[in-house]
Write a sequence for this structure.
């Protein structure tokens, strides 16, 4: 019987009414399995449209919207999995589809760590469950699996969500949230990480350690005023090259921003200088935010040298 595409079957499916039901091992957790098997419109796909294969890791690549950062995987965080596959073979297959770009034969949707481990053992083969799914369906399957495992970091979720919204949902954040059962508040918290200033991100020794609480706190401080933002970024430049934990860095940055905010109630600086007989020939005002404005009277305007001397005196005093 010819294989059926999930995209052809999806028209009659209520993707948001998927119930959790145990199923034969396919490498997916219950929510991911139920997506394929528990809804009437997908049952035939689960039985007829899924193929299990043993393939070379050289024929595979990660799907571009996988939410685990492959570059962060290494012998330290994948050691036990790598050793287990070497000793006992691969128990759980990864979930893949045919590579639509033509760069490789298969794109791995679920199973990034297993893919890494299989790439780093002598056999260099991997067991895959081959399905057919469009981008949105692939994302929903992947999210269901990783959400149940809950072992991806807030940073990975945030960076992935930003790319998926831009590329798959054409910038439609509301559509992304509705389609994937994600609260708008949750997405806002993720974006506080994804949109964090590069100067801050560059300081963090391990980006996977960045938490939502830290990110929302620093965003709150930065958004208070331009002066607070400047103080935070100045502190970030000061800390460049130093060795601190992620928690220590955020604490110092937040304190720098709050320190700038604590001076907001100070009165603006005002200074007048007598020029050409006018007691207010030159008036200098400095706002709370640090901006300086200068006013020169008509009487003083004709005495350029005296005006410059007054300004030099003000700036010299400030220095």
């Amino acid at each position: 019987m010819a294989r059926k595409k999930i995209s052809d079957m999806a028209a009659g499916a209520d993707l948001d009414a998927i119930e959790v039901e145990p199923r034969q091992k396919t490498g997916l957790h219950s929510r991911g399995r139920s997506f394929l098997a528990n809804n009437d419109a997908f049952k035939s796909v689960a039985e007829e449209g899924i193929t299990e294969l043993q393939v070379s890791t050289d024929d595979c690549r990660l799907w571009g919207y996988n939410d685990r950062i492959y570059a962060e995987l290494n012998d330290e965080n994948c050691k036990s999995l790598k050793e287990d596959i070497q000793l006992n073979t691969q128990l759980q297959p990864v979930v893949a589809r045919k590579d639509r770009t033509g760069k490789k034969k298969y794109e791995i949707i679920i199973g990034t760590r297993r893919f890494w481990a299989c790439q780093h053992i002598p056999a260099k083969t991997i067991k895959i469950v081959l399905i057919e799914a469009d981008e949105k369906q692939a994302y929903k399957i992947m999210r269901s699996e990783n959400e149940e495992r809950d072992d991806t970091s807030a940073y990975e979720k945030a960076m992935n969500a930003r790319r998926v919204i831009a590329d798959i949902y054409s910038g439609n954040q509301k559509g992304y949230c509705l389609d994937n059962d994600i609260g708008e508040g949750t997405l806002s918290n993720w974006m506080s990480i994804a949109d964090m200033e590069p100067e801050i991100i560059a300081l963090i020794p391990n980006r996977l350690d960045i938490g939502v609480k830290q990110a929302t706190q620093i965003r709150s401080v930065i958004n208070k005023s331009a002066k607070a933002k400047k103080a935070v970024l100045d502190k970030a430049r000061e800390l460049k090259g130093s060795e601190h934990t992620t928690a220590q860095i955020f604490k110092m940055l937040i304190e720098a921003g709050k320190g700038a905010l604590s001076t907001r109630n100070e009165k603006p600086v005002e200074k007048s200088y007598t020029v050409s007989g006018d007691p207010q020939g030159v008036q200098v005002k400095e706002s709370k935010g640090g901006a300086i404005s200068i006013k020169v009277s008509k009487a003083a305007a004709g005495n350029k040298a005296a005006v410059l001397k007054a300004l030099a005196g003000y700036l010299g005093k400030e220095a």
Q: What stands out?
A: Residues 269-318 form one domain.
